[in-house]
Amino acid sequence: MRPAIGERHWIIPDGYIPPTSAGTLTSHESVCVLNVSSEEAKLRFSIYFEDREPLEDIPFVVPPRRTKHIRTSSLNKEGTPIPPGIPYAIEVRSDIPVIVQYSRLDATQAENALMSVVAYPIK
Amino acid sequence: MRPAIGERHWIIPDGYIPPTSAGTLTSHESVCVLNVSSEEAKLRFSIYFEDREPLEDIPFVVPPRRTKHIRTSSLNKEGTPIPPGIPYAIEVRSDIPVIVQYSRLDATQAENALMSVVAYPIK
Amino acid sequence: MRPAIGERHWIIPDGYIPPTSAGTLTSHESVCVLNVSSEEAKLRFSIYFEDREPLEDIPFVVPPRRTKHIRTSSLNKEGTPIPPGIPYAIEVRSDIPVIVQYSRLDATQAENALMSVVAYPIK
Amino acid sequence: MRPAIGERHWIIPDGYIPPTSAGTLTSHESVCVLNVSSEEAKLRFSIYFEDREPLEDIPFVVPPRRTKHIRTSSLNKEGTPIPPGIPYAIEVRSDIPVIVQYSRLDATQAENALMSVVAYPIK
């Protein structure tokens, strides 16, 4: 049995799904989660906006001893996705410790731009 | 009632408003703040320079359970904005805990460049 | 004698070796390790995937008072390298404290994109 | 009197001065330091390499209540600068607490790429 490492609660204040793509790559964001343990990690995402109520408790599972690089455009709350082109923020909770990083590829213009942060752990 | 999470005091040493833009996007910086609590967060920004006195205690409010992605070009101290094209640094204080991330889109040249950091928390 | 500083265990959830390059630079990732101590640091890398078992305990040595910027494409487990073009995650363990940063240059398109994070320390 | 905040010891494992520039901007790295206190901060930089002895104890002063965005190409140890085009790592010590961020603009190709990290604090 491998123990879980990391934290159960992570925050990413700067979320943004670029609305358009040019060139050969597609604009996207990924929330990258690593679960080193021998148990499944059950995540819940909450999405906060500037001008409307949050979308809360979107579920996602990361299998034992696996990473998942989760496209934010794939997340939805009972069919409601995160709208592209507006600022938002991401809260990730997990039932066991995991480690979370956020990366964005912006291909709005012909050449791509890249940014990444390790999410902020709430201890 | 949802409790506040994060910290009350954050630092971003590398501030810089790119003076020009090319292509279809506009160069800008954003200070992205998440307030997960049921209360308003009252922020105060202080701006430090290389060669002149700081601009202190610029106010900004983040509503309950909302994020704000604040353009640094919108901040001003009694009408004095942060000048573009010079190095500066940012201090953010909040009356309740929040989480702060800083991102810059540089569109000085035809294609954009992107960088982001979670601000440094003072505990 | 100089003492070791940093941590013995670091995580990078977002690994990805860009499969192609255009322009004058080559797409690559580097795991940058600093060992300030007067002793050798013996590292072991483990690589986690989305859909297969991890590659575990790949060894690497950082000499005393040196940095090594390690290309992930150079790492292999008994001849099995990290495949390009798929998402993965990196765990770094060291027998003495070191400091770890991860950077990626993506030259998939003609102009390059750059991202970097300090790895997440497990304390 | 304003008290100093931050830490006295910071590490940046991934240093690299891009050897060439194209387009309208110049490739460079900056170590961005904020000193919020009413006292001068006396810094000492040490530079570590992959294959040679470190350059140690390069001095730099950050005035009270100021930021300095220090070009790494301006640092030198008794006339010996950091060579461009080779991997290195940076250690920053300060006699009082400061906050340190590292950013790189790579203009090797016609369009620029940008990366930034908050340095790793040694506590």
TrEMBL record, chains A, B, C, D:
Gene3D superfamilies: TM1070-like (2.60.290.11). It holds the Pfam family ASRT. It comes from Cohnella lubricantis. This is Sensory rhodopsin transducer. It comes from the Bacteria.
